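Sample entry was shown:

___
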Amino acid sequence: MRRSVRQGGMMLAELMVALAVGLGVVLAAGRLLVLANGAYAAQVESSAVDDGGRFAVDLIARAVRQAGAVDVATLADPASDAAPARLAGLDARTLSRTTPGLSDPLPAAINGSDVLAIRFPGADGDAIDCAGFPAAAGEEGWSIFYVARNGEGEAELRCKYRGAAHWSADALVTGVDGFQVLYGVDTDDPPDGVANRYLNAAAVDALDAELASLGEAEFNRRTHWKRIVGVRVGLLLHGSRPTRAVPGSARYDLLGAGYADAAGADDPGSSLDEARMTPDLRRRERRLFTFTVALPAPPS
């Protein structure tokens, strides 16, 4: 009788040990599954951010190069020199979808994001705006990039364009933390096609201050916006959902640390700190895309 009780106790103890070991294996497997799912989700988000960034970079670069395009029909026309500059920009502003061009800019910019506007001459089948619509020969196309919030409150980079009947704007990529632009100005006289300084839109406008008393035609001939030979862009994007196990605490200098340190409070959007973001945003995948686009040299 005692032996049976003793054997039963040993069997129960062995069973408890087996259950404990089995439970440990199940918990470990579950933990590995959670980690694997987390890693997979982070990889998917990272790939999506990379894809969105590459798409935006390619589209902006193509649009900027179009600013250097020339309508050959106007080369011999002296009045063409008095046309407005092909490039324009605004610092720390956003836009409405339907207002013409850069008119009536709004101050509620996301993290001090900028506006970049490009005008280009039409050419049948060869000149398209940032939305993919063609501008026919003899017409003028527009590609305007700015940041605004959608109906869900998510910041997105938009393409504003002039349609057949009205102005409109479409989203290019969502999850935008910041969009910053600098303009390479050739200040040499005569110009040599090389940027001497990279300035924000307000600084370029300041160079034009002494031209304010000139008439419109003469101002358009001499404006520094026609001396832009390159455009530098910083675009910071984040994923659509939190996938980081630990909140980020990095600082992102969208246009380089040198410019961010020099600009300081004059251009606060040039540097963004994750530590100042909401807890949800701090746990999202994030990528910085900084690139410079040279404008084609005009024909001699």
